[in-house]
Specification:
Length: about 150
């Protein structure tokens, strides 16, 4: 009962906040998550997730592990893992990301560059030829039973 998993929203927990109505200029370095609901101008370097809320406006370059854009961003963004643009998000700048999710209704004016992801193994570790070999083995077992019986 207590271990039920909640569906994860695209928003992460907030460790630092620039609230609605607030204005901040400068350089922000953080090791935790950052949420911007107000106005920010400068540079953002973050080891966690940067979330630009629906009311947020950012005139800045952003480099973070994950970036979620629901407001307006004017500047280049680099997401080492993934970038999510919600239906209210606007980005006027270039993207460099490991993974990208752009929802219908969002606005993107810029170029996209994605890092190549390593190939994933198939489920169960089966290779393409393994299933044919297994089928062949089943057929030979049936023949052995027929011959023996």
């Amino acid at each position: 009962m207590w271990n039920k998993r909640r569906q994860s929203a695209p928003y992460k927990s907030t460790d630092s906040l620039i609230g609605h109505g607030g204005t901040l200029e400068g350089k922000v370095h953080c090791d935790t998550n950052l949420r911007i609901e107000g106005n920010f101008s400068g540079e953002i370097l973050c080891q966690g997730t940067v979330t630009i809320g629906e009311q947020g406006t950012v005139h800045s370059s952003i480099k973070a592990q994950e970036i979620i854009i629901a407001g307006k961003v004017y500047g280049n963004v680099t997401a080492d893992q993934k970038l999510i643009m919600t239906e209210t998000g606007q980005l006027h700048g270039n993207i460099a990301a490991g993974a990208l999710s752009i929802m219908e209704g969002s606005v993107l004016n810029g170029s996209v560059s994605m890092a190549e992801q390593p190939a994933t193994k198939t489920a169960g570790g089966l290779q393409a030829g393994d299933s044919a070999d297994k089928a062949g083995e089943r057929g030979s077992h049936k023949q052995n039973k027929l011959e023996a019986g």
